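Instructor's aside before we start: the two examples that follow are unrelated to each other. I chose them only because their records fit on one page, so don't look for a connection. First example below.
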Amino acid sequence: MDYWNKLSFLPREELKKIQNQKLRNFVTNQLYPFSPYYRKLLDRYSINPRHIKTVEDLKIIPFTRKEDFLPHGASPHGFMDFILQPDEVLIKKYWPKARLFKLGLLKLLKGKSYVKARLDKEYRPIFLTATTGTTHDPVSFLYSDYDINNLRISGYRLLEVFKAKSQIRAVNLFPYAPHLAFWQTVFAGLTHDNFVLSTGGGKVMGTKGNIEAIKKVNPDVLIGVPSYLYHVVRSAKEMGIHLDSVQKVILGAVAVPVGFKEKLAGLLKSMGAKHVRIMGTYGFTEAKCAWGECPAPIKLSSGYHTYPDKEIFEIIDPDTGEVRGEGEDGELVYTAIEARGSCVLRYRTGDLVKGGITYRRCPYCKRTVPRISSKISRVSNIKNLMFSKIKGTLVNLNILSSILEGEKRIDEWQIEIRKKDNDPYEIDELIIYASLTGNLDHQALKESLNSRIQAATEIIPNRIIILPHKEMLERVEMETSHKVKRIMDLRPK
């Protein structure tokens, strides 16, 4: 694990040299020989895997998209075709002579069964996480023991980036499910020798149970989905509980606006916490790991620190596919260079990054690894919810969500898009439901929100409805759903 402390401060030229070397080896000796999907893809486009020698060479390879994981004509087995599937014939055909010699020597010295067990340990899937199915059917990504070790490594690195000490006590509020966020947190704690209590979130123990767990653990760190973590903290305050032990909050699963960080920090400060650092993470199922921000002033973000020995990121023009330069906006594309199980090459995440990627030294922790801007809009499907045409105007609902999430006077909120009188031929209506943090002037808040929303999106909500806190919790399914129901498009499809 000490390798990270050396790697993350290497000059850019050294990091790129490592990436080029790992890319060549991975494509030639792992991906092309053992991935049914990518062997067919490269053969279809007459791409010799040995010609992929540098990061710049990736541009000749077609992109992989979310739809490619689903069964279709070219890939009837869907996500199964992305799993590395070596056998004796493929190994003999594709591996270099030097590596085959070592394999033969191992067989001679330790026996055929030993070699088989060793290859099974490296390649045989034993674990999976899955996409949540927000925009497509859920897709499983499989891990071998090799990938589990990578999950441990990325977890360790995350906590190092967060400057978490090995003696910390943490409470993990992520929902218990075969999702990356929960398991990345579990393996991070185990590898970093931290005490981490994983409660399973609201559906397992309920809010009262989570608060009781926090009281018993007296944690230094709280970890979870922003909306539910905020709900737990707010509920704890209503019960008169102090959280003066909390030093860090680590948030994941969704983007975290600056306004939300300020609101949460203020709430924790009122409960006795001092100098709290609130940091976001970014991850996706297809990468089988997550990346984090290092501690920075509350209104700033260091960006997400990546692992250049494990992956390559590109920023592309989402319309043309052309690779963008450092610091330029575009869509994030991911390539694995150190993986087994399910592997992807030039995978289009569908996430737009304002500010792209920077290779400059981090001004806060001084690391030199590539950093992804935290200004990420998840628009995996532009026809879905994050961009929606309302009243004839294309509205970026990420912006609208950020306004509501960052508003200190709002506790919980939900956006509802419907047709007037539920008539499919009528005009669109945008309705905002919200509960407030205290006994506030409803009319003043509504006028302020209308003004800010119009300036940001060019539309005004038809109605802003203020509801009691308990009713809002039920409306967004805070206690009953793995994903809080923030945006509801109830128009006929």
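Example two begins here.
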Amino acid sequence: MMPLSTQSNFADPDSAYRQIVEAHRGLNDAQSVALDAALVLVLANHIGDADVLREAIALAKRRLPESPAR
């Protein structure tokens, strides 16, 4: 099993961020959500390790903002 890398692996992280932001330009909310879902599936397949995916999902869930109280 390869460990989940949480350090930046990009030579230019700002460029990578801009690519993601630009990919959403001109999309409506539904298209933006669909793009994110497709990108997650493509990258999860690229990783190809269920344990790493499980760890990444857990990390992402911990980073979600709290729901506002009603």
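Residues 44 and 50 are 9 Å apart (CA to CA).
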